[in-house]
Amino acid sequence: MSNYLRKNKTSTKAAPRRRIWVATGVAGLTGVVGLAASGAATSAGAAGVDRLASLKWSTAEQVVKADGKRDDAAQGEKHDRGKGEDDRSGGDWSGGDWSGQSNGKDGREWRGKDDRRDDRKDDRRDDRKDGEDHAKEVPCDTETLVEVVNKAVRDDGGVFKLAKDCTYKFTEQTDQNAFPVIDEEIKILGNGAKLVHEGTELFRFFEVNSGGDLTLKDLTLSGGQVSGPPPAEGQGGALLVQEGGKAHLKKVTLVHNRATATGNGGNGGAIANFGYVTLEDSVAKDNHARSTGTGGNGGAIYNEGELKVHNSLLEKNTATTNAEGTGGTGGAIANFNDGIVTIAYSQIIKNLASNDGGGINSEDDTRLTVNRTKIAGNTAGGEGGGIYFDSSNAMRVEHAIIADNKAAEDGGGIWHDSDTSSTITGTKFYNNTAGRNGGGLFNDGDLTLADSEFKDNDARQGGAIFNNSGDLKIRHTKIIKNYASAPAGAGGIFRDGGTVELDDKTVVKKNEPTNCAGTVDGCFN
Question: Which candidate in 24, 200, 237, 294 could, as Cys together with 327 as Cys, close a disulfide (CB 3.0–4.6 Å)?
Answer without folding.
Answer: 294
